[in-house]
Amino acid sequence: MNRRTVLSMLGAATLFVSGALAKNPMVGGKEMFPGKNIVMNAMNSADHTTLVAAVKAAGLVETLEGPGPFTVFAPVNSAFDKLPAGTVDTLLKPENKDALVKVLTYHVVAGKWSSADLKKRIKLGGGKAELKTVEGGSLWAMLDGGFVVLKDEKGGTSRVTQADVFQSNGVIHVVDSVVLPQ
């Protein structure tokens, strides 16, 4: 083999390996890295700017950067837009921090629950699985056409639109609606 052939083969191998490594999930148009924590990855997602602003306002950044593991049902910006007009602005006010913390921690479950784990638990529970949230309330996970759907304490539902975005300290499941505690 001549030098040009070897260099060409090395270049092809490099492209193959770098392509294989770039297969991390994309969320909000940005690659999510399993070696980064929940906050670091969420900050890169264009679809989660409202969630990140809320986490910062609630003072939960340090907690969600912690070792966990956490399962976060992460509402996209359009999920917050579904709330009654003015709700997000009201929750982001310093005097409403306790209410904001309650809503955000209602989206977090202790442990690392993959979609396969959730589906197994749903089947074992006869079609429904109760999930205890960090907030102290309950969410109920069910299946609808193969998708995991959450039901909150007020009867609202949220569909997991992208599952299993693994992080260094847990997993994010992207959801299409904000779930609300009692």
TrEMBL record:
GO CC list: extracellular space
Name used for this protein in its record: Fasciclin domain-containing protein
Which keywords belong to this entry?
Signal
Give the Gene3D superfamilies listed for this entry: FAS1 domain (2.30.180.10)
**What InterPro entries has UniProt attached to this entry?**
Adhesion/Biosynth-related, FAS1_dom_sf, FAS1_domain
Q: Species name for this entry?
A: Paludibaculum fermentans
Q: Transmembrane segments in this chain: where?
A: none
- Domain of life here? Bacteria
Q: Where is the FAS1 domain?
A: 35-179
One matching Pfam family is Fasciclin
Signal sequence span is: 1-22
